[in-house]
């Protein structure tokens, strides 16, 4: 094709739907630990959860995965689901919550454009909890493109947001 289509700027990722082994275990993570609201549950087969009352941001189902082990790490598939928090303080609050629950994190990075906490859900699905810096603070290369990187996130500094 000679004409390149460009997706409209207002386009958003509406939701992610995850195959899980146990709905209740997943709800304990997404609802009880991360704080999502349950919008609908279909027995032990599916649940739909949301932030702010949207019909669902995350769908969880056991249709093809009930009782099964996590997918192998070294295969194709979803790398992680990224959950964007509105403020750095919100990211700090959820990090503090994870820390107090002794929930294991797998990483914490400053990407220049964002700051992120990484962890896995009970089925080994990757989860990124992050906050975007304002666009006017994103680092840029000399050619004007953004310069993303991965550096260690200062978690002690992040936690100072909880106190403010």
What would CATH call the class of the largest domain?
A: Alpha Beta
Structural class: alpha+beta
Fourth-tier CATH superfamily name of the largest domain: 2,3-Dihydroxybiphenyl 1,2-Dioxygenase, domain 1
Count helical runs: 3
For the sheet with most strands, the description reads: 5 strands, mixed
**Care to count the β-strands?**
9
Can you give the mean pLDDT?
Answer: 95
Give the domain tally. Answer: 2
Word description of this protein:
With 164 residues, the chain is α+β, with helices and mostly antiparallel strands. It has 2 domains: 54 residues, 2,3-Dihydroxybiphenyl 1,2-Dioxygenase, domain 1, CATH 3.10.180; 85 residues, 2,3-Dihydroxybiphenyl 1,2-Dioxygenase, domain 1. The protein is built from 3 helices and 9 strands. The strands form 2 sheets. Strands 5-8-7-6-9 form a 5-stranded mixed sheet, with helices on one face. Strands 1-4-3-2 form a 4-stranded mixed sheet, covered by helices on one side. A hairpin with a 3-residue loop joins strand 6 and strand 7. Helix 2 packs across helix 3.
Defining traits:
164 residues, 3 helices, five-stranded mixed beta sheet, 2 domains, 9 strands, 2,3-Dihydroxybiphenyl 1,2-Dioxygenase, domain 1, four-stranded mixed beta sheet, 29% strand, alpha+beta
């Amino acid at each position: 094709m000679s004409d390149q289509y460009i997706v409209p700027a207002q386009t958003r990722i509406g939701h992610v739907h995850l195959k899980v082994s146990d709905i209740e275990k997943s709800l304990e993570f997404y609802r009880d630990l991360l704080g999502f609201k349950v919008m609908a549950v279909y027995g032990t087969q599916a649940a739909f959860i949301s932030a702010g009352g949207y019909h669902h941001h995350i769908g969880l189902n056991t249709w093809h995965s009930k009782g099964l082990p996590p997918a192998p790490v070294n295969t194709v598939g979803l790398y992680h689901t990224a959950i964007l928090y509105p403020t750095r303080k919100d990211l700090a609050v959820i990090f503090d919550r994870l820390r107090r629950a002794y929930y294991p994190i797998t990483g914490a990075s400053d990407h220049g454009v964002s700051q992120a906490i990484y962890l896995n859900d009970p089925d080994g699905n990757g989860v990124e909890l992050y906050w975007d810096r304002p666009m006017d603070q994103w680092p840029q290369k000399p050619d004007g493109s953004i310069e993303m990187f991965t550096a260690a996130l200062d978690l002690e500094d992040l936690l100072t947001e909880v106190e403010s």
